[in-house]
Design goal:
The protein is about 40% helix and about 15% strand. It is of the alpha+beta class and about 170 residues long. It has one domain: Alpha-Beta Plaits, CATH 3.30.70. It has a four-stranded antiparallel beta sheet with strand order 1-2-4-3. It is globular, with a radius of gyration of 15 Å. The two termini are about 20 Å apart. About 35% of the residues are buried. The model is unreliable at about 150-165 (pLDDT under 50).
Length: about 170
């Protein structure tokens, strides 16, 4: 049931929705497919190489993405660029033409200080553990906490982006 009972704060509503997305076993779970997750991971890293943002924590879940960014270009370009580039590539792989890939809305939050940045980064990197996907955050491949060679994935085509803390949902 949504929204949660009572009048939740935006933070508690976010946590509720995140837990809900982690528990859903139906609907679009395209991001669980390795080629699609690879596109999103490469796009996130490519934005750094283009000088559009500093990439903090991220976690690519089966049906949503958490990302923490420090923008270096106008934030209005962030989701438009990231969603557009990844949607085109993902839809091509999925054999879908002209279909919406990402949800129109996302949850954005401006980080106010370093302690909030650290708290959000820990939340993002712990998300796959809380969702029951791995026991140790370092074992989750599609996360900034994951242990694997990340440099190889930046060679894929990627978006021109910038941003803040956000959650994207296909």
């Amino acid at each position: 049931m949504f929204p949660p009972p009572g009048r939740p704060s935006s933070g508690s509503a976010f946590v509720w929705m995140d837990r809900y997305l982690d528990s859903v076993r139906c609907g679009p779970v395209y991001l669980a497919q390795e080629p699609i997750a690879r596109i999103v991971a490469a796009s996130l890293r490519r934005g750094v190489l283009l000088g559009h943002y500093e990439l903090g924590a991220y976690a690519i879940m089966a049906n949503h993405v958490h990302v923490l960014l420090l923008p270096k270009v106008p934030p209005s370009l962030l989701l438009q660029s990231l969603k557009g580039a990844t949607a085109r590539q993902a839809n091509l792989l999925l054999g879908r033409t002209g279909e919406t890939f990402w949800q129109a809305e996302s949850y954005d939050h401006w980080v106010r200080d370093e302690s909030e940045w650290d708290r959000i980064a820990a939340y993002i990197e712990d998300n796959p553990v809380k969702a029951g996907l791995v026991q140790c955050k370092e074992d989750y491949r599609w996360s900034s906490a994951g242990k694997w060679d990340k440099s190889a994935e930046t060679s894929l085509g990627a978006a021109a982006t910038s941003g803040c803390a956000t959650t994207l949902t296909p």
